[in-house]
Specification:
145 residues, 31% strand, alpha+beta, elongated
């Protein structure tokens, strides 16, 4: 094949289309497992931080608009028809390396029962230690407050 502008453009176009097609296929194949994994992680975090419940907090969820323009998703925990607490998922953009998503559990009096860091992009070995910072034995224990 002769080296010319037309041939180079044709080859690069072909390679780009092939790479785009492969990426599109892989994205389509992995989208459902990734969504299922995120849902399972969210369900596990709710079970970890909320008081014992017998409802489906994910189907009962609602979104609250906060004063700073962000939102928080509330997952009510109920035993029978009585609300026994809630798990609240919030996202902050104030992380050093981007967004941090956490789930915090409260009892019906508003006391913190626990928390779970769902996602972050913080520095390994430093920011990745968030799960221990505010728990029992951590520097700023918030459990029970």
């Amino acid at each position: 094949m002769k080296s010319s502008l037309v041939n180079m453009v044709a080859v690069l176009t072909g390679i780009t289309c092939l790479a785009g097609g492969i990426l599109g296929f892989v994205s389509g194949v992995t989208a459902e497992p990734i969504a299922a994994s995120k849902l399972a992680k969210q369900e596990n975090a709710i079970r970890l931080v909320a008081p014992e419940f017998d409802n489906n907090p994910i189907s009962d969820q609602w979104v609250a608009e906060l004063a700073d323009g962000t939102t928080a998703t509330i997952f009510p925990a109920k035993k029978g028809n009585e609300t026994v607490g809630a798990a609240v998922q919030a996202v902050t953009k104030k992380g050093f390396s981007g967004e941090i998503t956490i789930m915090v559990g409260f009892d019906k009096e508003g006391n913190v029962l626990g928390y779970s860091v769902l996602s972050h992009a913080e520095t390994p070995g430093l920011g990745s230690k968030m799960p221990e910072w505010f728990s029992e034995g951590g520097k700023g224990n918030i459990i029970g407050k």
